[in-house]
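If your schedule permits, I should be very grateful for your opinion on a structural question. What I wish to show you is a protein chain and, alongside it, a tokenised description of its three-dimensional fold. Would you kindly read the sequence against the tokens and tell me how you understand this chain to fold? Here, with my thanks, is the record as I have it:

===
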Amino acid sequence: MLDIKWIRDNADALDAALAKRGASPLAATLIDLDEKRRSVIQKAQDMQSRRNAASKEIGAAMASKNGELADKLKAEVSAIKEQLPAAEEEERQVTAELNDALSRIPNIPLDDVPVGSDEAGNVEKGKWGQKPGWNHKPLEHYEIGEALGWMDFEAAAKIAGSRFTVLKGQLARLERALGQFMIDVHTQEHGYTEVHAPLLVRDDAMYGTGQLPKFSEDLFRTTDGRWLIPTAEVSLTNLVREDILDQEKLPLRFTALTPCFRSEAGSAGRDTRGMLRQHQFMKCELVSITDAESSIEEHERMTACAEEILRRLDLHYRILTLCTGDMGFGARKTYDLEVWLPGQDTYREISSCSVCGDFQARRMNARYRGKDDKATKFVHTLNGSGTAVGRALIAVMENYLNADGSITVPEALLPYMGGLKKIEKAA
């Protein structure tokens, strides 16, 4: 959420930033709402002040035995008491209207973010590794998995419908190995604290990271009003909601390996084959909580941590700086890692690392204080995939495919596979 005080002082800057994101100008509307809110607040405060003053005047009138004046003042106080609830309710409504409008505005892009309307405006930052050099025919992951007998989409459809996958046997173990490998690297080498957090969260948690109110259609909700997390970013970031942290203890770095749940609203017809776009998938999430001065540097560090996973798996990938029109709602800058998939003959996103500034912190009221500071500041938050486990499985299957249809287990995963070095056809 953006600061209305900043918007009042930087109306042109807000509208320019919104234009970069392809959105209409909103500064004037927001400032008008804030003026209305201020007017209503002032009205209520004036009424309260007059009530307090009149109450004192009643005492003075009584002391001077001016009964007529005392009665007049009592009538005035009584009238104000009757009017105040309506004024306070108007204040609550106008404040809620302003907060709702503010909650739907995307974050301000950093100055070095490329301007563009969609993914065509993304800028390649670099590449690592090489495409596979084998000569046999590449296949897509679902062709490989079904031929091996370890991937079953029909069973998943019978159980849950479309956009679900059943993994069995050796492929199920390979996916589990990928998740364990990721969490071990991030906790043992990259300094992240592993967290086992709720998969079901309240409205406030979804609001805090920006999923609500604007993106409710992308989420699954339970009958008791909780939400299934679309990413562990929600649970991990909200660990600091309503806290005041000591600056010297920052940064905080959290990671979690969890199922994620997304309705995939608006993706009808996209990636319907296979397990690229699922309602339920595993992801290793990274979240950092920093002070205002450290977040940009932390963004580079977080991205490097995600890259290291792909490097150890020896998967060819590229890094993109997302343009303003393709960047997420809460991000100020985002790097996407796209892994090479031979079966599709293209790159596909496997990690997205974003710096959000104090955008989420304002929604969560998460702050920090320096050792000698009296005032508090909002923390800065960052999140990234370290990486998406299902997509890593797809990448391993397609990049480590052998001519006979088997899959070689990457060396980095061998310690997790119980001696299994190759994924072969089910007996």
In short: The CA atoms of residues 175 and 393 lie 6 Å apart.
